[in-house]
Amino acid sequence: MALNAGAAPDAIKTISDRQDPTADFANAASLGEGLRHARERSGKSLAELAAETKVHRRFLTALEQNDWSSLPSRVFALGYVRAYASALFLDEQLAVERFKRESPDTSVPLKAPIGIAFEDVKRHSPRIVAGVVAVVVAVIGWNVFQRASLHQAAHPSDIAAVPKTWVSGVDPDPQLALSAPMAAPPDQTTPQLYITPGLEAQLTGVDPAVIAAAANPEPVQKAFNPRGAVYGAPANASMVVIQAKTAGALVVRLGDGQALFARQMAPGEAWRAPIGVAATVDVSDPAAFDLYLNGEYGGPLAGVLTPLAQLNSRADQAAKQLAATQARAQVEAQAAQARTQAQTQTSAPSPTPTTPN
């Protein structure tokens, strides 16, 4: 079976033609050295491996150089090691164990053992079983007693005799009879009010331009729909939301390099960006994340690295533009109403003066 289907025909080698990559990886001096040798034997570059594993190139370089400080949180680092080993057909579990051994996690202290001694459980188990059996027997006995006390013997009906009309089907009052059904009334329709063209404002009190604008509103963008956990700032303190369409890594770093937020996002999960924070949004794949500004869809992310201040500025400009559009529409509606009232007062007939006799 060929190991590299994308190479030239003369460069294709089989497993029997080369050494076992897993054995070479296990005998390497360090995890990074073993990964680098395996990648060089496969003929893949860091750029090709980054595109295949969806892991940023600088994280793959940090793994090869054993630079653990350049990696994100330990959860992401373990996922990167597993993805690197899988892309090179190495033993994923062996790679993870070597990473844990060479980069131990010192953030979690050891905990004292907890639990109940087996002898204590064995000593008290007969009492527990006896108590459960007693409760079950009491419940069953109570239900049997309730059913027995509510049981009543059958007794005859209170009706002494069945009326003859019930048996023969005779109408008890022959003077009452149903006539034939009446015909349905004819359909009635109300004609639509006819408005003379040019007199819409005088008859309806609304400017035709306002009616046309209401009939053709501006298209509304797709609104943000939370389909999973939402992290980050509260809804009333954020104008930018980043939601994952597909699985991908999202890391938000402050200006000093400290991670403000880091998570392997599942499809539907979202992060609300705070206002007034200088940070950089770093994602594994820009096409895997959607951007929402003020609750409306703003397209996908533009690149792998995006300044958070740029996204907040776009949201602020969109909010100001929407407020200006609403204010302009309100002013136009008030002006149209004022024109309609002035035309109505002008067209009204003046009262005829009366002369004394």
UniProtKB/TrEMBL annotation:
Q: Where is the composition biased (Low complexity)?
A: 333-349
Q: What is this protein called?
A: Helix-turn-helix domain-containing protein
**Organism from which the protein derives:** Brevundimonas intermedia
* Highest rank taxon of the organism: Bacteria
Q: Where is this region: Disordered?
A: 333-357
Q: Name one Pfam family in it.
A: HTH_25
Which segments cross the bilayer? none
**Molecular-function GO terms, alphabetical:** DNA binding
